[in-house]
Amino acid sequence: MSTTPPRRPHAEELQKARWHKSSYSGGANDCVEIADLGAYAAVRDSKDHDLSPVILSRSALDELLGHYTDGESRVG
Questions:
Q1: What is the pTM of this model?
Q2: Which residues contact 76 (CB under 8 A, 6 or more apart)?
């Protein structure tokens, strides 16, 4: 079994990614978008696609989302 982590996505993969806007945006353009990149996920500002997205491992994204979906909206 390999312990080498998966390769981080390249810029071309981010440009071709399918981005999904949060269902909480309510039609406004002030939300985030997420792209599934296999072992990683990218998160970007929905109103400024020129900003670099944040790249997270899937486990880190799951932990972050779980923190908020469990009703814990504070850090610390």
A1: 0.71
A2: none
**Structure tokens that stand for 33 in this block:** 């978008």
8 Å CB contact between 33 and 43:
yes
Q: How far apart are the first and last CA of the chain?
A: 35
The predicted-structure confidence for 1-14, as pLDDT tens digits, reads as follows 555 666 778 778 88
Residue 75 zone, left/alpha/beta (φ > 0; ψ -120 to 50; rest) = beta
Q: 6: Cβ–Cβ under 8 A, 6 or more apart, which residues?
A: 38, 39, 40
User: What six digits make up the tokens of 34?
Assistant: 């997420």
